[in-house]
Amino acid sequence: MKMSTVGWIGISIGILGGLVGLAAGIMAEPKEGSIFAIVFVSIFFMVYWFFIRPMITTNRLLKTGEQRSGKILEVWDTNVTINNNPQVGMLVEVKDKYGKTYQVKTKRVISRLEVGDVRPGLLVTVRVDPQNEQKIAIESFGVAGDANYTMNEYEKHLHQILGQIDEENKEILLSGISAEAKVVGYYDLNIKVNGDNPLVMLFLEIYPGLQTPFYGEAKGAIAAQSVYKFQPGSMITVKYDPKNTSRVTVEHS
How far apart are CA 18 and CA 238, in angstroms? Predict the structure, then answer.
């Protein structure tokens, strides 16, 4: 997320005002003022470390970093929202200047309207710190004119992802335990499989018989005509791996 000049001026004025207030407070009430100063500085440090510092790094990379092409391998919610827009974490595969690929994690605040578009397999344009290639910033979703990735590579990678999901689901269906589950979240990954069948991620509350219910996620393609059966609040049948309850798949789709 870029910060405008006006935004930085506002932050600077806020910091200066806070320091002046702290100095006045300590002079008026040394003991209470010192305690307040410690609390204020601690809070400011946390805000700086987790929010301001990453923004400074991102802005620097977007201005001075080397432009590269990449693609998203994984996406996850960071549970952070800024101005009602979610911050997502991403595992990105980037090509270095020699054409070799490597993986790096990054975060970015995206518009709520982009949530369905930011998905594994999406090509991106990034800026890379030439001194440390593990530091990247996503410049845009989509690739620059001189991109190293082609649509054929995108489709190939997409097929690999779908194949991995399908293989894992088959394993769970063979050895997993059946249970009822309630759909608490439905997320269309905006990918169609074998026609108009959507690839979706379901967030589930699973009821394993007499055991304590737990939450899990399931990914897979569902029949287009059955989409209504998987909306939040619906009860469905799933299978889960008893050795790793994070591995869940829909038993009947």
Answer: 54
